Amino acid sequence: MTTTSGVSAFAEVNELVAQAGSVLNLKKGLVDAISACEREVTISIPLHRDSGIEVLTGYRVQHSSARGPRKGGIRFHQDVDIDEVRALASLMTWKTALIDVPFGGGKGGVAVDSTKLTPLEKEEVIRRWTRTLINVLGPNRDIPAPDLGTDAQTMAWLMDEFHRIEGFQPACVTGKPVGLFGAPGREEATGRGVAQITAATLQQNNKKVEGATVAIQGFGNVGRYAALVCQELGMKVIALSDMSGGIVDKKGIDIKAIFDVKSLADVKSDNRIGSAEVLEIECDVLIPAALGNVINDSNVDKIKAAFIVEGANQPIMTSADKKLRANKIVIVPDILANSGGVMGSYFEWTQNIQQFSWPKEKFRAELDVRMQTAFVNVNETAKKYKTDLRSAAFIVSVARVAEAFSVRGSLV
Ligand code: NAD
Questions:
Q1: Binding site for NAD(+): residue ranges?
Q2: Which positions are catalytic?
Q3: Number of structural domains, the chain?
Q4: How far is the CA of 222 from the centre of ligand 1 (A)?
Q5: pLDDT tens, position by position, 30-80
Q6: For binding substrate, which residues are annotated in this chain's numbering (predicted)?
Q7: Where residue 66 sits, what CATH number does that domain have?
């Protein structure tokens, strides 16, 4: 996604990798090697619609396999392009390394407005995407998962298509429905992790969790569960928005009561706001959990939250990030804050391989402990290097990927 200011999202990630490499005294050649994408595949997807055949463009970018099979979601959104997929694939490499799971990084996408696809069309698109990319996918090669515009049902179709060609291997994709080799707990894992990290951040900064006010952009998989668990932990969600617009209630929105609505347009409210206005609400914690680049040069001066916990990937442009930090706003980076999703995917993958199933309580307990470990590690690294949380997270993960890449030998 080349941003409105012409900045490449992939270049922004690589800038963070280079900074970490410099702190760690890594040689330039090594930093270049671990920054580059291993493989990029662009495909065409002919889609049969009532109006005729429409040819969509799909992608799979495999950024790194240094620490294990590539892992990363598949996004259906009209703004998907190769630069965005590269950036997201690369973020997966740093995220999986940060939480220390045996995966590398990858990401996929199709440039299409998922809200305008019928269920049958969506099924056709994901089946074609899977068939065309079959040679680069698999439980030990590259394992997709849901992302923006895709969900458990999409993953079920993906798994079915994979099985038709390669035979039974449920570990070929994660984020599947529980009734089809999915893991109880995976669906909520990203949002649950975001909420747990929010609570830990408040405590770390000597703020009360009980009654802390939260505003969330996005009421899809991540935003919905983040809101629910924030409420369960005692926080007060005072503003929410999705594609249809937003709602505000200073007394606190009852998330349980509205959890199952299709869209926030279906929620009764006397105080409606625009989709982006939620970012400018006065609150303790802001959780962007929808799209990238939503906090940028045009609105950075209007942000009033004391803490920003990144539920979405790359919701803050680098230039805005610098300004926010200068204003003493604490930012918890995406590769830590939303890593509960890939942690949950790791649990699902291992269970599929072992043909064994954990109860939800065990899943939740393992997730909470491992998220806490990653949180402590990032905070201690920030202290050690006297730096911000994003730089600290990249120092941890770049060190791990660089080590794995190096010890594999010079002839790889
Ligand atoms: P989703 O498709 O389930 O939900 C997206 C939500 O964002 C919807 O409520 C949609 O209405 C809203 N939205 C879209 N455009 C908007 C706009 N302009 N303003 C306000 N809201 C808007 O997607 P998701 O899976 O919840 O993913 C959200 C973000 O979290 C993405 O950046 C994704 O990469 C990231 N993420 C997802 C996971 C996961 O496990 N699903 C894991 C890590 C990171």
A1: 190, 221
A2: 107
A3: 2
A4: 6
A5: 999 999 999 999 999 999 998 899 999 999 999 999 999 999 999 999 999
A6: 71, 95, 345
A7: 3.40.50.10860
